[in-house]
Write a structure and sequence with these properties.
heterodimer; A: 292 residues; alpha/beta; D-Maltodextrin-Binding Protein, domain 2; Dipeptide-binding Protein, domain 3; 2 domains; two-stranded antiparallel ribbon; 10 helices; B: 293 residues; mainly alpha; MetI-like fold; 12 helices
């Protein structure tokens, strides 16, 4: 009995290992290290579904669309880190690593690359010189009134934009905020990328106008816009520009701009790359650092 | 007089109910988890196609059309668990033999709490240790980028040590002293008696330790996902310096953003994991029954 159990266990493991061997790995892209003498690039990506990954692959052309088919071409050899802090630690500890994070989370343990010659600074994102940036938008149907109007006024006031400034690039503010203190309920729905910022804004606003009742739901940009169109929420959040079909029914405003920084280890001699180079690295077409 | 016995009886009855309820909590919890897992996971599996889900090799949840296939993760879980066993079990058993039969009392007083402490360290701390110590170490010594099957196996090997040592030590101590004494009386040295008489006599307990170690290793999530690289690719054993994604890591990494079928596919991944754990527990209880006989 005991023996048969031991045998069974051994058989399970052996079977698994054989299964692993027998099925030919066809997906082995990149990671070659054949000839050039440079080091293998450690590509670090975020997990599938992450807003940062979504924006990054879209802005960099890593996501390929053909009709109804969209495909994320990020190399399958990329290490998956599920959080900005893990990307930062991994890049800081690996001289050959490259990753991407929201510019709001940059710190001096890593080096942010210039893209197309522009560093990911607030000015460069604002004037459009830095190409990997996306707007955080709110959108609503018709005219805003009551709590919604007061809250949007708060977002664009100096008080609101000061909160934005902690993590993103701000918009032109309208000066100090004075609440009309309207009562009522406000429902906000949409992008998970905008969600953390929106929560902070709501928290600050409720301190000023405690009679308001605001709910923020996290779905995604498209769901948020759909909800704003069909009226299940008052304000939708999107981390992308609105599509034409959405703009026909909604008014949109940018509340902040979020840049995505491409980061490498501090020992890495590279200081800048083109968009095409970044794309080639993240799709696995280039897998070795060239010797500089 | 009668009232006090009455109230005593009452109290006893009430406490009876309290104890029964407490006992039920665990059962209800297991039942609810089963129901939740299977209700969430099985329809998704059917929608994807059970064989495709279990044996396919492409995990691209956000593409349109998406594909949810977890064979690489099943294999990855088995790899890192096997690795952890290969690394952790010999060390664990030798440590247990040392502690039960060889260790001086003074050292034991220090060793035992140290190992208990090892069991108490939260897995995220192990993960962080792995990330900043083991990953660079493997990268310098063995090459690759460090986040790999080998790193995960090493880390898990350390993590299962307290489980393996604890149970193996208990079962070694449970071996009747006569066996050891008999061996020594027949002229065996101390070491020979320990390794050729006592350890074989405790075999089923040692096996139980291994099985519980497997259970611990296969279910570990936080630490593994921080050092394994998490690529959803089918690896071969010789690619032990490359990263892989275990079942647990797959669930915890993507659950945050997943929705719709993606989310259900992750729950279904949990179902597969749950079945694995059930099998392991079954083996464990069979072993226990053997040793009780």
């Amino acid at each position: 009995m005991k023996k048969s159990l031991t045998l069974l266990l051994a058989a399970i493991f052996l079977g698994a290992i054989i299964a692993g061997c027998a099925s030919n790995p066809t997906t082995g892209t990149g990671g070659g290290g054949d000839n050039t003498g440079g080091n293998d690039i450690t590509v670090i990506s975020r997990e599938d579904g992450s807003g940062t990954r979504g924006a990054f692959i879209e802005l960099m052309g890593i996501q390929v669309k053909e009709g109804d088919v969209t495909k994320d071409m990020t190399t399958k050899e990329a290490i998956i880190a599920d959080g900005t802090d893990i990307v930062l630690t991994s890049v800081a500890n690996d001289a050959n690593a490259i990753g991407y994070i929201s510019t709001g989370s940059l710190n001096d343990t890593v080096k942010a690359l210039q893209i197309e010659g522009a560093a990911p600074t607030i000015e460069n994102i604002k004037n459009g010189a830095y190409p990997i940036a996306r707007p955080f938008k709110i959108a609503y149907k018709g005219e805003l009134e009551g709590v919604a109007a007061d809250f949007v006024a708060f977002i664009f006031s100096k008080d609101g934009q000061d909160i934005v400034a902690k993590s993103c690039v701000t918009m032109q503010d309208t000066g100090p905020f004075e609440s009309q203190r309207p009562e009522g309920k406000l429902v906000i729905n949409g992008s998970s990328s905008v969600f953390p910022l929106m929560e902070k804004l709501v928290e600050a606003y409720l301190k000023i106008n405690e009679v308001a009742d605001i709910e923020v739901h996290m779905t995604d940009s498209s769901a948020g816009m759909a909800a704003a169109i069909n009226g299940t929420c008052d304000i939708g959040m999107a981390s992308r520009d609105l599509k034409e079909s959405e703009l026909e029914q909604l008014t949109d405003e940018s509340i902040a701009i979020d840049g995505i920084a491409v980061i490498v280890n501090k020992e890495n001699p590279a200081t800048g790359m083109t968009k095409e180079e970044v794309r080639a690295i993240f799709t696995g077409e280039v897998s070795i650092w060239s010797v500089e | 007089m009668t009232t006090s016995t009455n109230s005593g009886k009452h109290r006893e009855q009430i406490m009876h109910i309290v104890f029964t309820l407490s006992a039920l909590t665990a059962i209800v919890a297991v039942g609810l988890i089963c129901v939740f897992l299977f209700a969430g996971g099985v329809p998704a599996m059917l929608e994807i196609g059970v064989l495709k889900f279990l044996l396919g090799k492409d995990w691209s949840p956000t593409d349109t059309p998406a594909s949810f296939e977890i064979f690489p993760m099943i294999i990855a879980s088995i790899y890192v668990t096997t690795g952890a066993i290969l690394f952790g079990v010999p060390i664990g058993i030798f440590t247990a033999a040392f502690m039960a039969k060889i260790c001086p009392k003074r050292l034991y007083a220090f060793l035992k709490p140290t190992i208990s402490l090892l069991a108490g360290i939260p897995s995220v701390v192990y993960g962080f240790f792995g990330m900043v110590v083991l990953v660079p170490l493997v990268r310098t010594w063995f090459g690759g980028n460090g986040s790999s099957m080998l790193t995960a196996s090493l880390l898990l090997g350390i993590m299962i040590l307290p489980t393996v040592i604890g149970i193996a030590e208990t079962s070694l101590r449970a071996v009747p002293e006569e066996l050891y004494e008999g061996a020594v009386a027949l002229g065996a040295s101390h070491e020979r008696a320990v390794f050729f008489i006592v350890i074989p006599a405790a075999k089923s307990g040692v096996m139980a330790a291994v099985v519980l170690g497997i259970g611990r290793a296969i279910g570990e999530t936080m630490a593994v996902k921080m050092v394994a690289g998490n690529q959803a690719l089918l690896r071969m054993p010789k690619e032990f310096l490359k990263g892989l994604r275990t079942l647990t890591a797959n669930v915890v990494i993507e659950m945050g953003y997943a929705e719709g079928l993606h989310r259900d596919a992750l729950v279904a991944t949990g179902v597969v994991l749950f079945v694995f754990i059930l099998l392991i527990n079954l083996v464990f209880s069979l072993l226990n029954r053997r040793s009780a006989l």
